[in-house]
Amino acid sequence: MSRLQPPQHSDEVKVTFPSEHVLLLTLNRPKSLNAMTPQMSEDLKHLLDWFEDEPDLWVVIVTGEGRVFCAGADLKAWNENQQAGNTSEQEGVVANVHGFGSISRRQSNKPIIAAVIGGAYGGGLEMVLNCDLVVASQDAKFALPEVKRGVVAIQGGIPRLAQIAGHQLASELLLLGKTIDATEARDRFGFVNTVVPPSQVIATAVTLAKQIIANSPDAVQSTKNGLLLSQRHNFSETLIAHAWSAHSKQVYKGANIKEGLKAFTEKRAPVWTSPKL
User: Is the dihedral of CA 65, 202, 101, 69 positive or negative?
Assistant: First the structure.
């Protein structure tokens, strides 16, 4: 994947390619617990927009350098803005179409895997809630403590958590501002897939990514599109919108469906090609 040239970005995000077709983005402000800055958010937007458009990248993993995945917003900077009378948060939320860290509201048709070491708080957890698969370290903690600071988890975390966990469990996390551990996030709240030792988080996420890319990228992206449509429509509307979507057209009229079916009849592994919508 050395031929891939990511867009220019600061050292607040590290870019690597741990496997073919897989992009790894690492939040890189460990001394500040990877609290989000305008620069980091801008870097993530440019990198993820590039990922969306690059046909040879099929999966992205997002993780954090150091002992915390992401501590959320920079509350010191937010305090300075509020004390100075800058109260344009509502306009900012509406204008920021991809949400916190350019992830919490991003509607990507490609899989996003969160690799959480140490924990995710506030906006950091809102990012995690919008990922497709979540690998967490055994010591990871999760919280949406916004109400304890007079603010709100308004960047997508409320509807995503309500959808995943149900109203009562979402209320428990959101209204109490409580902290839960990785096992509870997996077994009770349902937004963590796998809990592993900290040293195994990245390797486990890469293994999941490899399992995804063993499948047809056309079929994976169409399936992800169907999941996104189901968040916005009822059963029948989702089915019809998905059937007539550009992603379904790519599946049924592209090369990979022919390769997959032919490989099955020939009793061999398929060789997929990158989709070009």
Answer: negative
